[in-house]
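Exercise 7b. Backbone tokens:
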């Protein structure tokens, strides 16, 4: 809109209705100098902003003009954006920012939860792996030792060896037996057990409780392994057998 068009139209509409400037001032309570500044488009004499638009709206209402249309003409002439529409725009602009901030915070929270859960899961897997390694070692050792205990027979075949050892227990105790230097037993033996072992030259017997074990070599009772209630070790061979009548050892 060319300069002067808005002011000229405003003045023309007022004069067309035969309304004097003073009548407008009395009806709208707008200062006469502000009314003249609008009609002359002397913007520097106006307070500016929403006050100018309020003046235009009040004058349009008093003269019976379309308020919005007159305000649009004022905006074009003055070159300002609508002061009433600006607050609405400002109210709408922060909304996406709030949603974006909330979405970002939620995403960050979810990321933290996922990282914590992954860390806990990884630590549990690592701890389970660490616990499983010694268990596997113990299992391997147990399996390796198992054939040794199974090698002992309750009763060897007749005349298969020169020495026959009978082991009886009155109480549970730990026993370790070597036959000709080979380990044939290394385990906990319960009370009331009776085991037989064979060897060619010698036995080495170790008991956790000496008084809980009774030994017989080729049917002959052997002396206690050690002091009662304590552990002890004894080596038995042909020389520990008493000669039988006629000079032969007990078969």
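Sequence design result:
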């Amino acid at each position: 809109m060319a300069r002067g068009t808005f002011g000229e139209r405003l003045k023309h509409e007022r004069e067309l209705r035969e309304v004097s400037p003073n009548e407008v001032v009395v009806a709208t309570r707008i200062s006469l100098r502000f009314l003249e500044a609008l009609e002359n488009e002397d913007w520097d004499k106006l307070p500016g902003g929403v006050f100018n638009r309020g003046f235009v709206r009040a004058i349009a209402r008093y003269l019976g003009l379309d308020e919005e249309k007159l305000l649009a003409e004022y905006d074009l002439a003055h070159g300002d954006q609508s002061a009433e529409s600006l607050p609405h725009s400002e109210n709408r602009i922060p909304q996406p920012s709030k949603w974006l901030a909330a979405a970002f915070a939620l995403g960050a929270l979810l990321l933290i939860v996922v990282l914590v859960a992954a860390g806990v899961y990884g630590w549990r897997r690592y701890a389970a792996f660490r616990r499983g390694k010694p268990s596997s070692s113990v299992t391997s050792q147990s399996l390796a030792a198992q054939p040794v205990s199974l090698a002992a027979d309750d009763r060897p075949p007749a005349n298969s060896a020169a020495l026959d050892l009978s082991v009886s227990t009155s109480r549970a105790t730990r026993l370790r037996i070597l036959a000709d230097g080979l380990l044939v037993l290394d385990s906990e033996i319960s009370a009331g057990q009776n085991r037989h072992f064979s060897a060619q030259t010698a036995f080495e017997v170790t008991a956790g409780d000496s008084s809980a074990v009774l030994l017989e070599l080729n049917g002959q009772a052997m002396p206690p392994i050690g002091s009662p209630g304590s552990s002890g070790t004894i080596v038995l061979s042909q020389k520990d057998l008493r000669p039988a009548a006629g000079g032969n050892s007990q078969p």
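Instructor comment: The longest strand covers residues 182-189. Residues 80-94, 135-140, 142-152 have pLDDT under 50 and may be disordered.
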